[in-house]
Automatic annotation (TrEMBL):
Name of the protein this chain belongs to: Carbohydrate-binding module family 1 protein
InterPro entries, A to Z: CBD, CBD_sf
Organism of provenance: Zopfia rhizophila CBS 207.26
Domain of life, source organism: Eukaryota
Entry keywords, A to Z: Signal
Length: 249
C-alpha cells in the first residue's frame, strides 16, 4: 500500500515537471515573471518582444546564440583586394567580361559594388568580396558556381568551382565558400532573377539568397534569417550578376 502510494506520487511529480514544447506564436521563456515552458517547436526561436513577453516565431534563429566558432583560416593576404600570389590556377580573364560569364557583386552598404573573387586571385582559397579592379568572372552550370581563370581566348578554358562547407561556422548558422579545382558536392547554386542563391535538400533556408561578408571580406552562406541577429564583424548581403563589358565601382 505504501509502495503504491509512493509510486503514484512520484509519477505525478514527474508529470508536473515535464516540459512541453511551445507552439508557434505562443509565449515562451525570457519574460519577467514567466514560469511556463520555454522550448519552441523545431524551426522556431524564442524572440524577446519586451521585458515581460517573448514569443515563439517560426523561422527565427534561437535567441541564445552559441559562442562564435573560429572561422576557416584565411591566407596571409586577407584584404578585400587579392593579388595573384601562390600558385594561381590560371592567368585570369582580364578586365573585360568574357562571353558566357558575369561579374557578381553586392549592391548594398557596406559592400556596395564589391565584387566576388578568389583570394589569392585566380587561385584556390576563400571566396571574398573585393575591389572592382580584381573582379572575377562567373557562371552557374548544372548547379556549380564556376569561376573562369584562364586567359582570354585560351582553350581549353580553366575553371575553379565554388565549394560549400558542410561544417558550420559563425553562430553555427554559416557555411564557408572556397574555390577548388574539383566540383562542389554539397548543394546547388542557381540564379533567382539576377541574385545568386544556394540550396540543399536537408536545409530549409528562410532566404536562399542570404549571404554574410565577414572578417577579411570572406563570404559565407547565411542559413538563417536575412538582416536578423547579424553576427559581430559580419554584414548581411545579397549578391547579383552584372553583365556590362567592364566592372565598375
Amino acid at each position: 500500500m505504501h509502495h503504491s502510494t509512493f509510486s503514484a506520487t512520484f509519477v505525478a511529480l514527474l508529470a508536473g515537471t515535464a516540459s512541453a514544447v511551445v507552439k508557434d506564436w505562443g509565449q515562451c521563456g525570457g519574460g519577467q515573471g514567466w514560469s511556463g515552458d520555454s522550448e519552441c517547436a523545431s524551426g522556431s526561436g524564442c524572440i524577446k518582444i519586451n521585458d515581460y513577453y517573448s514569443q515563439c516565431q517560426p523561422g527565427a534563429a534561437p535567441a541564445n546564440l552559441q559562442p562564435e566558432p573560429q572561422q576557416p583560416p584565411l591566407p596571409a593576404s586577407s584584404t578585400g583586394t587579392p593579388t595573384a600570389t601562390g600558385t594561381p590556377a590560371g592567368t585570369g580573364p582580364g578586365k573585360e567580361l568574357q562571353s558566357g560569364y558575369y561579374w557578381v557583386r553586392a549592391v548594398a552598404a557596406p559592400n556596395f559594388h564589391k565584387y566576388m573573387q578568389s583570394n589569392p586571385l585566380y587561385a584556390t582559397g576563400p571566396a571574398v568580396l573585393g575591389d572592382y579592379t580584381t573582379a572575377g568572372q562567373f557562371q552557374v552550370v548544372d548547379g556549380q558556381l564556376v569561376q573562369l581563370v584562364s586567359g582570354p581566348g585560351e582553350k581549353p578554358e580553366k575553371h575553379l568551382y565554388g565549394i560549400v562547407s558542410e561544417e558550420r561556422f559563425i553562430n553555427n548558422n554559416s557555411l564557408s565558400v572556397t574555390w577548388s579545382t574539383t566540383k562542389n558536392s554539397y548543394g546547388k547554386f542557381a540564379w533567382n532573377g539576377d541574385g545568386l542563391t544556394w540550396s540543399v535538400a536537408d536545409i530549409t533556408r528562410p532566404n536562399a539568397a542570404a549571404w554574410y561578408v565577414c572578417t577579411g571580406q570572406q563570404m559565407y552562406i547565411n542559413l538563417g534569417n536575412y538582416l536578423y541577429q547579424t553576427p559581430s564583424g559580419c554584414a548581411d548581403q545579397t549578391i547579383h550578376y552584372y553583365n556590362d563589358k567592364h566592372a565598375n565601382n
